[in-house]
Amino acid sequence: MKLARPVKVAAADSRVRAVCLPSKRLTHNQTEICIATGWGRDAEDGPLAGRLLEARVPVHDNAVCRKKYGHSVHIRSGHLCAGHLDGSSGTCVGDSGGPLQCALGDGRWILAGITSFGSGCAKPGFPDVYTRLSYYLPWIKSKMVRN
């Protein structure tokens, strides 16, 4: 999506703010806070949410998702593995395409991932899989340069 004009930095108390693109690959021990948001269901058999839902999720090494999804999905470098292994919270049906935002140590928030798929809704033992934005940065930047 290309905006007609630059986004103005909003006041700290604003509900709408710009998020930074990642400058490098996010690793599982690089951040303490990542939040997935979406308008999907809050239970696998429930209705779509009437308000924006959020889940604070830990980032894992992709090996965790390879182990869990290896039989059905080939986890690649362009994937990002994140979510609670105990099933306490995560993304759900209808959240695909939503953001995974992570806070860096310097206070900036980055768009680390885009919700791709999971086991349903926070199934114990199965983290969610996101599209890793840093992997696609060269392509994103090439499109941003073009008019």
From TrEMBL:
GO terms for biological process: proteolysis. The keyword Disulfide bond applies. GO terms for molecular function: serine-type endopeptidase activity. SUPFAM superfamilies: Trypsin-like serine proteases. CDD domains: Tryp_SPc. InterPro entries: Peptidase_S1_PA, Peptidase_S1_PA_chymotrypsin, Trypsin_dom, TRYPSIN_SER. It comes from the Eukaryota. PANTHER family: ACROSIN-RELATED, HYALIN. Belongs to the peptidase S1 family. CLIP subfamily. This is Peptidase S1 domain-containing protein. It comes from Callosobruchus maculatus.
